Amino acid sequence: MCAGLPMNTLEAYPCGSDHTPSPMASRVPMEAEVLLDSPSARLTAVAVSMRAGHAIAFLGDSKGNLHKVFLGPDGKTKQYATIPIQPDVPINGDLLLDHTQENLYVMTSTKVEKRPVAECSQHMDCGSCLSTRDPYCGWCVLEGRCVQSSECAGAELAGQWLWSFDAAQQCLSVQSLRPSNISREEKRDVFLSVPGLPRMENGGAYTCVFGEHESPAIVMDTRVTCSSPDTVNIPPIHPGEDHVKTTLSLRFREVTVAAHEFTFYDCRAVQELSQSAPCRGCVSSRWGCNWCVQQHACSHKDTCERGVVIYNEHPRDAPVHGGTYDRHDDDCPSRSARSRARRPHSAPDRTHHPEATAQLPVPLSTMAAPTSPPVTTPSRPVAPPSGDDNSTRVQTEVSDPEPNPPETAGEAEGGEGAEESRSHPAPPWPRPP
């Protein structure tokens, strides 16, 4: 049959003559669209493997390189790897796959090399595995290995084998973490969201690991709940620091499926590092620390044993209770701190002021109705200091009127005495003649 072909057949149609073991020729020429062009080097060898319905071509060139090309079902090609075999020595046309289709024999004029069709094991992490875009490889999530699908025990289950060549595949990661930091003195639940988390089969279970401390993970679809460790299991905070960072990992057996940084802070360390202005340093810290005025302490709690709480400028969760604000020897000077403190309307200020008592010997009971100035009795007259306005200042500090002052007995009855007291309030002391 070949003898009947025109003499210039192989020159006109060189398909197979220079890069396949058996040259091909035909009386009827075949034309096709070019899938891959190699302008820098002439292709000298070709072998094709089928894997899971996908075609992968291995191409040798005249410069001694082996190219791996994915042939897509839509006619598109993607060259995903180039391996040097022997520089500037053409690859022989005898490019053959073994009977398992797992190994490729590459030959030159002076060399024969056996290479695996896939080299997945050289990629040690998920990111490296997926970035190769090798159609043979994928990340086995619960085994923590870059392998072919046939080597991953749960490859047929959703989410357990991530195909490297699929650009839409992403390594598992913690999408959200709430909260991302807590006090080392508290124990609470931490909530994670891990999209694409594989479901457990055959009684398997995930675990949460804070540093080296393990605890069972509660999994609902892609939402995970972890319990923070006890204080004794939290890494110590170094001197001069107010926090320590650790890694929160979600594991299956010894394999880390996803991980995220987690922080434990110490409000007492925050106070120690802000000795010149401990209150200001406490409430302005980036952690959830609040200032207990009477205890003179920086605490992660939203309540104090007694007295006043000044809340942090950057609260994570709004407090659900009220509080009061009062002056203190080491009070925070900023106005913003005052606005964050809360005063319940049901608790009027009964603060005793020694300075006011010394200058105005007025019983505190006269201050029950803040809108009416205190009245002195005739038995203890007090003359105002001459040329001094301190009495007015002290009176203003002592009265501290409330938003809704209680009615006096006369006002409740609506008598004339009540009306007169409202029209002509008694002066704080007898007027001079």
Provide structural commentary.
Mean pLDDT is about 75; it is low at about 315-330 and about 335-433. The chain contains 9 helices and 22 strands. A hairpin with a 4-residue loop joins strand 8 (about 140) and strand 9 (about 145). With about 425 residues, it is α+β, with helices and mostly antiparallel strands. The strands form 6 sheets. The protein has a 5-stranded mixed sheet, with no helix packed on it. A 4-stranded antiparallel sheet has the order 1-2-3-4, with no helix packed on it. Helix content is about 15%, strand content about 25%. One of its GO terms (cellular component) is semaphorin receptor complex. It is a single-pass type I membrane protein. Its main location: membrane. Keywords: Cell membrane, Disulfide bond, Glycoprotein, Membrane, Phosphoprotein, Repeat, Signal, Transmembrane, Transmembrane helix. It holds the Pfam family Sema.
Can you tag this structure with a few keywords?
433 residues, alpha+beta, four-stranded antiparallel beta sheet, 9 helices, elongated, disordered C terminus
Stretches where pLDDT falls below 50 for ≥5 residues? 317-330, 333-433
If you compute it from the alpha carbons, what radius of gyration comes out, rounded to the nearest whole angstrom?
41 Å
Count of helical stretches: 9
**What separation lies between the terminal Cα atoms?**
144 Å
Helix content: 10-25%
Strand residue percentage: 25-35%
Mean pLDDT: 76
Category from helices, strands and their pairing:
alpha+beta
Subcellular location: Cell membrane
Main location: membrane
Biased composition (Basic and acidic residues): 315-333, 346-355
Membrane topology: Single-pass type I membrane protein
